[in-house]
Amino acid sequence: MWGRRSKVAEPVLLDADAQHRAAPRTFSIPRRIVRESLRPGDVVKLCFVVDPPMGPIEVERMWVQVLEVTAGRYVGRLANDPGYLKTLEAGDRLRFGPEHVVARDAPEGDPLYLDPDAFAVVSGRVWTDGLWPRRLERHAIPDPQFSGWFVLVGDEPDSYKADLANFVPVAQALLFDRLRVLDSGLEGPIGTTMEWDDASLEFVEIPARPG
């Protein structure tokens, strides 16, 4: 039963933000604005350091439900029993910060939900040529199989974009397998444009031009 212990634990947690900055293209975490604006009831994934390691196991990923938000820091409740950490159990309360958040659960209906079975439209320069996607655009597409997201390098000329043969429909689950960082970039309603920012090492929303 949750809530067996009243003490707030302070386990050793992996600094996910530092890990992302060391490998931004392969170690994906939610955008900073998401990690810094969690609310009670949100469920996030943290990486708990296993010390000493148990064979190859150095961290254990577990879900935590946010209970309290104070001055940009969080108190949460562990949602599952650890398999390797013997000092914690489901229901334990613990402290953490935005820098520790590896993922945020976004069930269907959540503004950040991404349907893994929906298709995105991917530039061949990204999917075939292997170039880094720097621009994401969401358009209205009259086909429920498509999310409306276009994944682009960002320098494709109009003549390239006018030829549908230059684009590949890719299921978003497959897209995330190859380009994990996109799971924190394909966010927002129709009309959203996101661009990769080299300073913050994440996708940022580009305001729509007036008119």
What does this structure look like?
With 211 residues, the chain is mainly β. It folds into 2 domains: 8-104, no CATH class; 119-205, no CATH class. Helix content is 12%, strand content 34%. The chain is built from 5 helices and 12 strands. It has helices at residues 16-22, 32-35, 124-127, 158-161, 172-178; strands at 8-9, 43-54, 57-70, 73-78, 93-96, 101-104, 119-123, 135-138, 146-152, 167-171, 193-197, 202-205. The strands form 2 sheets. Strands 1-5-4-3-2-6 form a 6-stranded mixed sheet, with no helix packed on it. It has a 6-stranded mixed sheet with strand order 10-7-9-8-11-12. A hairpin with a 2-residue loop joins strand 2 and strand 3. The longest helix is centred in the first third of the chain and has 7 residues, at 16-22. The model has no long low-confidence stretch (mean pLDDT 93).
Features:
5 helices, 2 domains, six-stranded mixed β-sheet, 12 strands, 211 residues, mainly beta, 34% strand
Number of helices: 5
> Radius of gyration, Cα only, in angstroms?
19 Å
Order of helices and strands: EHHEEEEEEHEEHEHEE
End-to-end separation = 56 Å
Please report which band the strand proportion falls in: under 5%, 5-15%, 15-25%, 25-35%, 35-45% or over 45%.
Answer: 25-35%
